[in-house]
């Protein structure tokens, strides 16, 4: 699987269904099956577990290429991969051998339900209970806004195993067959088709061998896993910017007012030039961070920086593109209108812009307070 294959897949198997996906808010089964057969669910899983064994940099370029047309499919792939990264990074050998081969071929699709109705940003406020009973834990609670919630049959869940705020949280690998109920898809104006759902856990029994790390490690593992996920997540934003820029240039170089293409007005081409310059800088930053992660470094603050910059550029670029297309930019089947709606979610999912600023600001204090 390379960039060309992923572009071919989008053009051949997805483009014709984009309007239906947007309206129905769900991916048809045949598209999910095609994604599985192409290996899109195991892109960075090592070959020894049946994955494609791609590097992070190769993965980022594929996410970008898909997001130029269809950020929703890129979201599904990204969230699945960020979830299996928890198993790859923090799982035991037994957990890796048990789950990764099925994950790599899409027999198991993952969701990462951390958010609860009362706690999104404030992750340590998780209320879901996991009560020990012999060899098992009994999970009760509700998760929401879970990407892939409608498609997943494997979940990385954070739950409270004691009253301590941070040390009281533990990560579990939960199978759908354990009794997880998906309610949805939630009717958001963004990220339509990403299978976003509320998940109910009622007396869900999970064996202690399915804890990730150790009991009480949940908060620190979740923070690390989420932070590094912000680099691939930013590639979705980069793809959205590229898609919007391309559409805006194509349209404005053809569309004429007062006898000349609107692109020839500086009011039209200067904002596009600014977006192109910012995009170039963010792509270089993305490459640098991917290299750092491939070397085993943990650029957590920088991951917040690129998430903040790329998602805000996606919103800015798509807003400009809609404006440049005038009334046509608002049509229900307009690509830029869809990218505009999807861009907004990028500023909220994976930690809001405010959260990224908090992380960066904390680092500023460490560096410069004196
Ligand atoms: C498309 C999409 C997909 C998602 N997928 C998943 C998923 O797969 N798994 C999952 O667990 N969650 C997912 N989420 C949920 C997402 O992580 C949360 O929406 C996000 O963390 C914000 O939490 P909240 O919605 O509860 O808002 P809140 O935490 O209630 O925050 C509301 C607003 O207040 C701001 N705010 C909060 N505290 C502060 C502060 N101290 N200072 C300044 N501002 C503050 C926030 O930035 C935000 O703007 C998804 C969300 C979206 C939109």
Give the secondary structure arrangement, pairings included.
Elements: H1 3-14, H2 18-24, H3 29-38, H4 56-67, H5 71-90, H6 93-104, E1 110-111, E2 129-133, E3 136-146, E4 154-160, E5 169-175, E6 180-183, E7 197-207, E8 211-212, H7 218-254, E9 256-257, E10 260-261, H8 266-294, H9 300-324, H10 335-346, H11 353-368
Parallel strand pairs: 1-4
Antiparallel strand pairs: 2-3, 3-7, 4-5, 5-8, 6-7, 9-10
Helix pairs in contact: 1-4, 4-5, 4-7, 5-7, 7-8, 7-9, 7-10, 8-9, 9-10, 9-11
Bound molecules: flavin-adenine dinucleotide (FAD).
Residues 79, 112-115, 120-122, 145-147, 190-191, 196, 345, 348-349, 351-352, 354-355 line the site of flavin-adenine dinucleotide (FAD).
Give your account of this protein's structure.
The chain is α+β, with helices and mostly antiparallel strands and 370 residues long. The chain folds into 3 domains: 3-109, Acyl-CoA dehydrogenase/oxidase, N-terminal domain (Butyryl-Coa Dehydrogenase, subunit A, domain 1, Orthogonal Bundle); 111-216, Butyryl-CoA Dehydrogenase, subunit A, domain 2, CATH 2.40.110.10; 219-368, Butyryl-CoA Dehydrogenase, subunit A, domain 3 (Up-down Bundle), CATH 1.20.140.10. It has 11 helices and 10 strands. The chain has helices spanning 3-14, 18-24, 29-38, 56-67, 71-90, 93-104, 218-254, 266-294, 300-324, 335-346, 353-368; strands at residues 110-111, 129-133, 136-146, 154-160, 169-175, 180-183, 197-207, 211-212, 256-257, 260-261. The strands form 3 sheets. It has a 4-stranded mixed sheet. It has a 4-stranded antiparallel sheet with strand order 2-3-7-6, with no helix packed on it. It has a two-stranded antiparallel ribbon with strand order 9-10. The radius of gyration is 21 Å and the shape is globular. The protein starts with a helix and ends with a helix. The model has no long low-confidence stretch (mean pLDDT 97). The structure holds flavin-adenine dinucleotide (FAD).
């Amino acid at each position: 699987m390379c960039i060309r294959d992923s572009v071919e897949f989008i053009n051949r198997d997805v483009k014709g269904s984009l309007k239906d996906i947007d309206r129905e808010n769900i991916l048809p089964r045949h598209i999910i099956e095609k994604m599985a057969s192409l290996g899109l669910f195991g892109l960075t899983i090592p070959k020894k577990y049946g994955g494609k064994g791609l590097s992070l940099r190769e993965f980022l370029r594929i996410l970008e290429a898909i997001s130029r047309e269809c950020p929703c499919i890129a979201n599904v792939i990204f969230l699945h991969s960020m979830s299996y990264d928890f198993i790859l990074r923090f799982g035991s050998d037994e957990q890796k051998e048990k789950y990764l081969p099925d994950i790599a071929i899409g027999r198991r699709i993952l969701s990462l339900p951390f958010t609860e109705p009362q706690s999104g940003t404030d992750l340590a406020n998780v209320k879901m209970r996991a009560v020990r009973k012999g060899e098992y834990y009994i999970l009760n609670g509700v998760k929401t806004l879970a990407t892939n919630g409608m498609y997943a049959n494997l979940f990385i869940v954070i739950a409270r195993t004691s009253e301590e705020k941070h040390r009281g949280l533990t990560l579990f690998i939960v199978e759908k067959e354990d009794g997880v109920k998906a309610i949805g898809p939630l009717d958001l104006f963004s990220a339509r088709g990403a299978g976003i759902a509320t998940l109910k856990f009622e007396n869900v029994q999970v064996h202690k061998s399915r804890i990730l790390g150790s009991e009480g490690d949940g908060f620190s593992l979740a923070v690390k896993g989420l932070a590094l996920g912000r680099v691939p997540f930013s590639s979705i934003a980069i793809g959205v910017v590229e898609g919007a820029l391309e559409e805006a240039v194509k349209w404005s170089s053809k569309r004429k007012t007062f006898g000349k293409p609107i692109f020839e007005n500086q009011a039209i081409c200067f904002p596009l030039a600014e977006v192109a310059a910012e995009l170039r800088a963010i792509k270089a930053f993305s490459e640098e961070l991917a290299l750092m992660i491939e070397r085993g470094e943990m650029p957590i603050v920088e991951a917040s920086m690129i998430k903040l910059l790329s998602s805000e550029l996606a919103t800015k670029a798509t807003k400009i593109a809609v404006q440049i297309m005038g009334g046509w930019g608002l049509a229900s089947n307009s690509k830029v209108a869809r990218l505009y709606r999807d861009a907004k979610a990028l500023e909220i999912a994976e930690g809001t812009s405010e959260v990224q600023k908090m992380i960066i600001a904390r680092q500023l204090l460490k560096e410069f307070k004196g």
